[in-house]
Design goal:
By secondary structure, this protein is an alpha/beta fold. Helices cover 51% and strands 13% of the residues. It has two domains: 166 residues, Glycogen Phosphorylase B (Rossmann fold, 3-Layer(aba) Sandwich), CATH 3.40.50.2000; 171 residues, Glycogen Phosphorylase B (Rossmann fold), CATH 3.40.50.2000. It starts with a helix and ends with a helix.
C-alpha cells in the first residue's frame, strides 16, 4: 500500500512539474509572438521621431521621454511601446537585441533621440549612418564608484560606457543639468548643450490630495520620500531622521519588497512612524505631492531631479541634499532647505523648518514655469531636432 501511495505521489509531482514546464513554454511562446508583432509594427510606423529606450514605467527618465512625446511638434514613437514592454518584458527585448539591430528605421523617421539604455544607443549608432537621420542623445547622470558599498555594479558601468559612446558619436549631445555638463567636460572632454528635464505643469495640477489619502488610508500631515532603494538615492538618511523625529509621520514610496528588505539594504530597522508604499504611477505621484506637507530628497548624487521640480510646481515645502543636481533644480538651493549629505542633525533641523515655517512658495512655482515647463522646452528641443540649435 505504501509503495502504491509513493508511486501515486511521484506521478502527481511529475504531473505538476510537467504543467509548470508547459506553462513556462507557453509564456515564452506568447512573449516571442508579442515581440514579433511589435517589431513588425515598429517597421511600419509613420513616426518622424523615435524616442527610447522606453523600458522603465516610472522615474525621471520616463517622465522626460513622456514630456517629449506629448509636446514635440513631430509625430513620435516610444521604442519600445508601453504595451509591448508589458507583454514581452525587458528580458525578451534584451535577448532579441540582434534581431532589433538588423531592423531598419521606419521610412518616415528623420530623428532618433536616445536616453540611457545601451539597447537603443547601439541601434541608433548603427542606423544613423544612413545619412538622412539626425541622432540626438540626452545625458542624464553618470554613476560613480564611491556610491555603492561594494563598488560600481557591472550594469552601471555598462550604462556609463554606452552613454559616453553616444555623446561622442551623436549629432547633438544634450545634458539635463549644468553640474553634469561640467562633469562631462572635466572627465571626458565632451561638450554638450544644456537642455534640462521638463515638468508637465498640467500633470502636476491634476494631483488630488484626497485621492491619495483615500486610497492609502492616510490622515494627518506626512513627509514624502519617493525613490529607489539603491545606495545613490540614500534612503538611509531618511530612516535615520525618522528615528529622531518620532512625532512626525513619513511616507516612503520605494521599490523595497518589505520592511525586512529595506533593512537589509540600509542597515536600519524601519521606524513605526514610517509607512512604506510600493512604487506608484506618475499620476498617483502627483496625488502624493498634493497631499504631503513636505518632500525630502536625500540623494548622494543627482542629474536633475524631476521630483524636486514637481514639488516646487506643487508649492510643497522641499528639503534636499547638497548634491549638485539638487542645487541645480532649486536655483542654487535658494528654493529649498538644503542639508549636507550624511549630516542627520542638519537634516532633522531642515525637516523641522520645512514643516513648521510658513513661507511664500510661489517663487518656486514661477521658477519651474519659466525655466522647466515642457511647453517652453519643447520648442527648443524641436529646434535641436531640425538642426537649428
Amino acid at each position: 500500500m505504501k509503495r502504491v501511495l509513493r508511486s501515486a505521489k511521484a506521478r502527481v509531482r511529475t504531473g505538476i512539474r510537467w504543467l509548470h514546464e508547459l506553462r513556462r513554454k507557453g509564456d515564452s511562446l506568447q512573449r516571442r509572438v508579442a515581440y514579433r508583432r511589435w517589431l513588425n509594427g515598429f517597421s511600419r510606423s509613420t513616426a518622424e521621431l523615435l524616442i527610447g529606450a522606453n523600458f522603465d514605467m516610472s522615474g525621471g527618465v520616463r517622465n522626460h521621454i513622456l514630456g517629449i512625446q506629448r509636446y514635440t511638434s513631430l509625430t513620435s514613437l516610444l521604442v519600445p511601446s508601453d504595451k509591448s514592454v508589458r507583454k514581452c518584458g525587458l528580458q525578451c527585448f534584451l535577448e532579441n537585441s540582434e534581431s532589433f539591430l538588423r531592423c531598419n528605421p521606419p521610412y518616415g523617421v528623420t530623428v532618433l533621440h536616445s536616453h540611457v539604455s545601451p539597447w537603443f544607443i547601439e541601434w541608433c549608432m548603427k542606423h544613423r549612418e544612413r545619412g538622412r537621420l539626425r541622432w540626438v542623445h540626452t545625458h542624464h547622470a553618470l554613476y560613480f564608484e564611491d556610491v555603492e558599498p561594494g563598488g560600481m555594479p557591472e550594469w552601471q558601468r555598462l550604462l556609463n560606457e554606452a552613454g559616453i559612446r553616444a555623446l561622442v558619436n551623436c549629432d547633438a549631445a544634450l545634458c539635463v543639468s549644468p553640474s553634469q555638463q561640467r562633469l562631462l567636460k572635466s572627465l571626458h572632454g565632451i561638450e554638450s548643450t544644456y537642455l534640462p528635464n521638463g515638468v508637465d505643469i498640467d500633470v502636476c495640477d491634476s494631483g488630488s490630495a484626497g485621492e491619495f489619502r483615500k486610497k492609502h488610508g492616510i490622515s494627518g500631515d506626512f513627509i514624502l520620500w519617493l525613490g529607489r532603494k539603491e545606495a545613490v538615492k540614500n534612503p538611509r538618511d531618511l530612516l535615520l531622521a525618522a528615528l529622531r523625529l518620532r512625532e512626525l509621520q513619513f511616507v516612503m514610496v520605494i521599490d523595497a519588497l518589505d520592511e525586512d528588505d529595506l533593512e537589509r539594504v540600509t542597515g536600519i530597522a524601519v521606524p513605526e512612524n514610517v509607512r512604506l508604499l510600493n512604487p506608484i504611477s506618475r499620476v498617483e505621484a502627483q496625488h502624493a505631492l498634493a497631499a504631503c506637507s513636505a518632500v525630502v530628497i536625500t540623494s548622494l548624487r543627482e542629474g536633475l531631479p524631476t521630483l524636486a521640480l514637481e514639488a516646487l510646481a506643487h508649492r510643497a515645502a522641499l528639503v534636499v541634499s547638497d548634491a549638485e543636481g539638487c542645487l541645480d533644480a532649486t536655483d542654487a538651493g535658494s528654493l529649498a532647505h538644503v542639508y549636507p549629505r550624511g549630516n542627520i542633525d542638519r537634516l532633522c533641523d531642515r525637516i523641522g523648518f520645512a514643516v513648521s515655517l510658513g513661507q511664500d512658495r510661489e517663487p518656486g512655482r514661477r521658477f519651474v514655469q519659466e525655466k522647466f515647463d515642457w511647453k517652453v522646452l519643447a520648442r527648443r528641443l524641436d529646434a535641436v531636432y531640425r538642426g537649428r540649435e
